[in-house]
Every structure is written in C-alpha cells, then in structure tokens.
C-alpha cells in the first residue's frame, strides 16, 4: 500500500494537515509515538473517556507522556558544559495522540502583522538572527479564519486593541471570565494596560458536536474530560470520519527514506517492537520543534541549519498573594491576557537602551491562578504548621499570577541536536536541547517583571514574588536552568533562500520535494504569543497548497 | 496487611507520614489519612491487574457520573517497562539499563525506612524529626509522596474519604458537574 501522505505526529500540526488532506480526498496514515488516550479505541471518530480531574496521573505520573525514563532528553546551556548537564524531562510537551493540544489550556491568539516583519519593523539585534517571515499576516489571515472554525475558538473581536484585522467574527463568544481575572484585568486597566478575554479553544457554547466547557478548572496540563477543548480532538475525529485515514499510535518513525530529491516513505517501529517500512507519496513531519529536527537529523536530511535557532518563551513569572480567595481553581486556567509588553513604550524603550539593546519586546501576559493541592503542599515546610498553611493557602486559594511568555530571539547557538551519550528505549540517540537566554530576554524580563508586580499590588496583593523560567529562585527552590516553557519554536526555519533557511514558505524542505514540516519548527521568529493557532494555520496552508485547495474553497459554514 | 512493605516498615512509614503532616484538630495526620497506603500501593502497584499507576476516567462518582477512577488503565509493554523500572529498579536487566542502572523506589524506601531506625515508632517526636532530617534525600522523596497521598485522589490509596481535600476546602474532582458561570465569575 502506498498512501498519499504519511503524517508523523498527531498534535495540532499533524492533525490539521490530516484534516485538510482528507477533506481533499487524500489517503493518510498518522503515526504517533505516544499512546492514544484521546479517541475511543473502538470508534476513532469519537473522543475517549480517559481524561479526568486527576492531579496524580497528569501532574506526577506522566500520563500524557513522554515518560522521561523511556524517552529522556538532555540539556545544557552551552557546549562548555560537555555532552549535557541534565538528563530527563526537558520541555516535555505531551507525547500522545493529540500531542501538545491535549494538555494546553487552549490559548489560541493570532500573531499580529509585526510578528511576521520583525526585521523590517525593528531591525537587527546583535548576536541574534532576526529575520522577516517569507509570508505576511495577510497571507495567513484566511487560514487563521478557517482553523479558528475548525478547532473552535471562543473570543471577542475588538476586545484586544492591538489585534490584527479579522475577516470575520470568532466562531464562538468568549467564555466565562474567572473571578481573579476580572480583578486583575480591572487593576491592569487602571494602570493603563489593555487586558482582554483571551481567544481560547474551549467551547463557550456547544459547538461541532462537543459540549460547552463546564469550568472544572483542571485545564492547563490536563486532558479535557468532556472534550470541550477543540484542539486537536475536533480535527482528528473529523479526519477519522472520512474513512481515508489510519491512526497508528505507539509507533515510532525512526527514519525518513529518500531517493534523490524525494522521500519514498518511512521506517517505523510498531507497538510490537518490530521495525518495518512503508511507502508514501508525501511525508509530513509534525513532531514539534524538538522531535522534528531530531528525526531530520536521524534521517540525515535537511541542510546544516536543521536544529538551529531553537526558541522557547522566556517566562517571567510574577506571583501575588491576595488577602481574599481568588477561586483560581475554577474556570479555564487563564481567561484573560494582555499584550502591552509586546508594544514598546517609552519606559521599555529606555530599558532597552540602558541594556545596550536597539529594541526590546516582552510577550503576552497570562492572568491565572495557582496550582493544585498535592503540588502546593510541597511548597510549605513540613511539620505542625503545614495544615494551617494549606488552609490559609497563600500559594493556591490566594495566589494570582502573571506569566509573561517573553519573545525569544533566534540565536544560532540555541539548538536541538542528537546526544549520542544517551539513548531512548528503542536505542536511538536522545534529542539534546542547548539553550541560554540572551541579553534581550533577560533585559525584557527584568524590565517587565516589576511592571507586572505593580498590577498585582494594585489588585490588592499583600506580597509579591518575581521569578523566571529558566533561572531564578522560588520559595527556596532553585529553579532549573532548563526552560519550563512548553512553547517550543524554531529549529527548521522557513525562508526563500536555502542558504539561510531549512524549509520554503510552504514548509517544504529545500532539499526534498515531497517532505513538509507542519509544526512550530518552521517559525523564523517566536513572537510572544502562544504558537498553536499560528502553527495550525501554517499547517493548513501547507496542506492546502499540497492538495490544491485554497482557504476560500472550504465551506465557511462547516466547522 | 500492607501490600508491599513489611508490617514493621509500614509502621515506620505511617509514623513518619504523621510527623511530616501531623494531625490538627479533627484532621488526622497523613499516616492516618492514608499517605502510607498511597506509598505502599505505589510500591506494590504491580500486585494489581491492571497495575495501580493511572486511575481511570472521566469521573469518580463523587460529583456525579460513574465511579470510573477505580478502573485503572491497562499499561502497554513500554509503560510497564518504565514503571517496573521506576518502582523495582533495573535489577541488572538489559532492557531496563539502556542508560545504566536505575535504583528503584522499593529499594529507596526499604533503605530509607531502615535508616529511621527500628524504634522509630516509639521514639520521641523531636527524635523522630531529627532522624527524618538526617537523611535529606529520603526525606525529600517521602515528603513529596506524603503530600500526593494526602491531597491526591483517594483511588490511589491515600486521602481517605477525601479527608485531605475537606480539611483545606478543596472540592477535588468536579466532573461532570463542573462550576456554574456564577461560581466562576462572581463566587
């Protein structure tokens, strides 16, 4: 059997490619190395019942994978640290059917015009390789509009004064605002910021056969028990219903096979541990910005830039303890955000100048609550005061937090490559993350952190704390130098020139005619917005180009 | 009868959990609340079929729906390899040592509990605390698991009758009820 396309990875990018290609009549096989907990194994057109409000299995026992014993990753801040300084969990975005979409709290902002034109707008940064994208917001807008419907995004057009123009309304109105977010938004507005209801891929009303979110609160890092989160369950169930797709979970692609300028198929290892090959007319790689370059390197395809310009979001984390209960355990984890840190003002321009930088941008700021009790409990000293602390709960019931997803600049020295000294369970070299924030990231964090603290004080915080990921200390714990952000970006950047990019503007490898990268690996710059909706729009655009179906050809009334 | 620990190890663990999260008012200490059973169940997870690693979904029955948490997920061969290695250690088995030997939780608990001394349960509270502090690595592991046992879902063996959640006013798992818009926005 030769399928039209083999799709490697079932996350938001791979699922989108599968949806677009099967709508166009293509046959596809979706290969996923993780387990299937997303779809009913008896009927893959329906969601599963495996997810639950269970802190233990999701937060402490790797239910969504990857298990760091089976699939360790390694980390170092630079080559001076030798092979690695850490082995285990690094940026563990889920390895499971549905990929990173399963655990996200579904923030799905679009990028703005400027995010595609960083070099033209702001100019270069010393040490970084800031470039324009080979496409514009206008090129992507019809695909944004399509995938917002396909995934199911709730939002309010016009709520964000900085947002790029839209060709139509959101498919659903914004969902219920969290109590704490109403207070932090009011405080932010009073200080001149512009908070708004975050575009979110969680149903605010019944949509596309799935129920409205019922605000259970187990959202960020949890699979949705009622499948009100649309991404990517909506894409996968629709794909499977076409009858044109097969889904192979627990299957690992070890190599993309090639002949001359074409891929002929893939080698894979199934759940039985046996290695086999399959033929495919096209290969879509959608493993995310760590696993995708890993597979390209393992397959010895792509040019010498594969794995370079890894970006995460350098997170500035600001915590405020409020003298009242913020009810942070109810709702969609984050219902409000503000973008002001991405729009340089006089203060941030002065801070950039003081740091010796030509310009500086922060990132989208998420307004959210604290964690869950088993994790909270570790934050207090053991002994006779512990229960009192849990009852007073400064770190959960009274905690309101801002996380700024700071824009990372692309540095050639931040990379993903293969660490030959550590293997995964199948015997393949582990992916190695070499990462260190640059002056830009550190300066932006140092500048915006105190401005966010001021909002929390305005909201009523009796104490505030400021930290970052990577680096910094928090509640006596020294935080890892490995970045905690699950927004993993870059490593197979797109461009028109094969000398300075890995893939073309449609995600096609410059050196192979039928291999497409369909995930956030292709972003030339990171923006400070969550990457999901943009990678989904790019994957849809790439798949549309492959199948000859422009965005306008899809019935706009269909989800 | 404990599941994996010996009676005397279990008694030591029970007493240690009660020191880490001691009783206060009507709330029992973590040992009595089930943290020792949570840990013993994890150490003996493979005495059950399916192993007690991942509770089922989507509901527990506490807020409506069926009692699905009790039906633990079956493990794949790779899941079993990971969790057996994590719990039992690598035991010189080639398939568990692809990155070198692994010391399992069973050994860490056996040695850690032994380090607290055979008379730990009858030692004075201050002396118990001193011995707990003397083995920092074990204390860190034990504290982490004691917290999980006190505040995780009861199906894992701890948080007896949701006593941990009730003590701190936490609703626990709330599906399929969830929270109303009013409870979210204007509680």
Give an overview in words:
- The complex is a heterodimer of chains A (559) and B (187).
- Chain A has 559 residues and is α+β, with helices and mostly antiparallel strands.
- Chain A has one domain (2-553): FAD/NAD(P)-binding domain (3-Layer(bba) Sandwich).
- In chain A, 23% of the residues lie in helices and 21% in strands.
- Chain A has 12 helices and 21 strands.
- In chain A, strands 1, 2, 8, 9, 10, 11 and 21 form a 7-stranded mixed beta sheet that branches.
- In chain A, a hairpin with a 5-residue loop joins strand 16 and strand 17 (429-434).
- In chain A, helix 1 (12-23) packs parallel to helix 6 (233-241).
- Chain A is globular and about 65 Å long.
- The model of chain A has no long low-confidence stretch (mean pLDDT 96).
- Chain B is an all-alpha fold and 187 residues long.
- Chain B has one domain (7-185).
- In chain B, 47% of the residues lie in helices and 0% in strands.
- Chain B contains 9 helices and no strands.
- Chain B has helices at residues 7-20, 30-33, 35-43, 77-88, 105-115, 125-134, 136-151, 163-168, 181-185.
- Chain B is globular.
């Amino acid at each position: 059997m030769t399928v039209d396309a083999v799709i490697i990875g079932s996350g938001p990018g791979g699922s989108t490619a599968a949806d677009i290609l099967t709508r166009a009549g293509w046959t596809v096989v979706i290969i996923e190395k993780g387990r299937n907990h997303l779809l009913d194994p008896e009927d893959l057109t329906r969601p599963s019942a495996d997810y639950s409000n269970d802190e233990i299995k999701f937060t402490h026992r790797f239910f969504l994978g990857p298990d760091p014993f089976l699939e360790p990753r390694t980390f170092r801040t630079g080559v001076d640290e030798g092979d690695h300084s850490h082995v285990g969990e690094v940026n563990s975005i889920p390895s499971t059917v549905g990929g990173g979409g399963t655990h996200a709290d579904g923030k799905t902002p679009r990028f703005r015009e400027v995010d595609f034109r960083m070099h033209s707008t702001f100019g270069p940064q010393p040490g970084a390789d800031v470039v324009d994208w080979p496409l514009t917001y206008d090129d992507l807008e019809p695909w944004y509009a399509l995938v917002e419907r396909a995934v199911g995004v709730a939002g309010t057009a016009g709520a964000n004064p900085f947002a790029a123009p839209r060709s139509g309304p959101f498919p659903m109105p914004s969902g219920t605002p969290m109590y704490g977010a109403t207070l932090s938004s009011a405080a932010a507005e009073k200080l001149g910021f512009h908070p708004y209801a975050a575009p979110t891929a969680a149903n605010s009303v019944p949509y596309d056969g799935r129920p409205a979110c019922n605000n259970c609160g187990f959202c960020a890092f949890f699979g949705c028990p009622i499948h009100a989160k649309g991404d990517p369950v909506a894409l996968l169930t629709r794909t499977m219903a076409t009858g044109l797709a097969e889904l192979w979970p627990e299957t690992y692609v070890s190599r993309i096979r090639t002949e001359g300028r074409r891929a002929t198929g893939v080698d894979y290892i199934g759940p039985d541990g046996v290695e086999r090959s399959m033929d495919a007319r096209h290969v879509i790689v959608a493993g995310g910005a760590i696993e995708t370059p890993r597979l390209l390197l393992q397959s010895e395809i792509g040019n010498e830039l594969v794995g370079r310009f890894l970006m995460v979001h350098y997170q500035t984390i600001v915590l405020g303890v409020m003298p009242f209960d913020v009810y942070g355990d109810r709702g969609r984890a984050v219902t409000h955000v503000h973008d002001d840190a991405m729009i340089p003002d006089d203060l941030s321009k002065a801070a950039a100048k003081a740091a010796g930088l030509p310009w500086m941008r922060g990132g989208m700021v998420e307004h959210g609550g604290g964690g869950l009790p088993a994790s909270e409990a570790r934050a207090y000293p053991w002994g006779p005061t512990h229960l009192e602390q849990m009852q007073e709960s400064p770190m959960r019931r009274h905690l309101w937090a801002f996380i700024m997803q700071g824009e990372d600049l692309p540095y050639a020295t931040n990379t993903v490559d293969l660490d030959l000294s550590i293997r995964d369970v199948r015997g393949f070299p582990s992916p190695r993350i070499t990462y260190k924030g640059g002056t830009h990231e550190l300066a932006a964090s140092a500048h915006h952190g105190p401005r966010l603290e001021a909002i929390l004080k305005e909201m009523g915080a009796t104490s505030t704390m400021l930290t970052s990921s990577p680096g910094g200390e928090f509640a006596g714990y020294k935080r890892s130098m490995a970045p905690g952000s699950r927004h993993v970006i870059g490593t197979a950047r797109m461009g028109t020139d094969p000398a300075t990019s890995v893939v073309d503007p449609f995600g096609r490898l410059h050196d192979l005619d039928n291999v497409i990268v369909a995930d956030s690996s292709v972003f030339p710059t990171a923006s400070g917005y969550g990457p999901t909706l943009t990678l989904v729009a790019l994957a849809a655009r790439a798949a549309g180009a492959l199948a000859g179906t422009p965005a306008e050809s899809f019935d706009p009334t269909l989800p | 009868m404990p599941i994996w620990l010996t009676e005397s190890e279990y008694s030591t663990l029970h007493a240690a959990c009660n020191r880490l999260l001691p009783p206060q008012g009507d709330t029992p200490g973590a040992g009595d609340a089930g943290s020792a059973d949570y840990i013993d169940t994890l150490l003996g997870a493979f005495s059950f079929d399916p192993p007690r690693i991942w509770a089922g979904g989507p509901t527990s029955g506490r807020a409506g729906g069926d009692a699905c948490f009790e039906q633990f997920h079956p493990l794949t061969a790779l899941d079993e390899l990971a969790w057996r290695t994590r719990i039992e250690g690598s035991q010189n088995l080639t398939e568990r040592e692809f990155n070198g030997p692994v010391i399992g939780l069973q050994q860490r608990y056996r040695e850690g509990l032994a380090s607290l001394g055979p008379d730990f349960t009858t030692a004075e509270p201050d002396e118990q605390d001193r011995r707990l502090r003397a083995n920092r690595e074990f204390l860190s592991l034990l504290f982490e698991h004691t917290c999980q046992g006190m505040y995780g879902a009861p199906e894992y063996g701890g948080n007896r009758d949701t006593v941990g959640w009730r003590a701190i006013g936490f609703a626990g798992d709330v599906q399929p009820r969830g929270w109303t818009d009013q409870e979210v926005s204007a509680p």
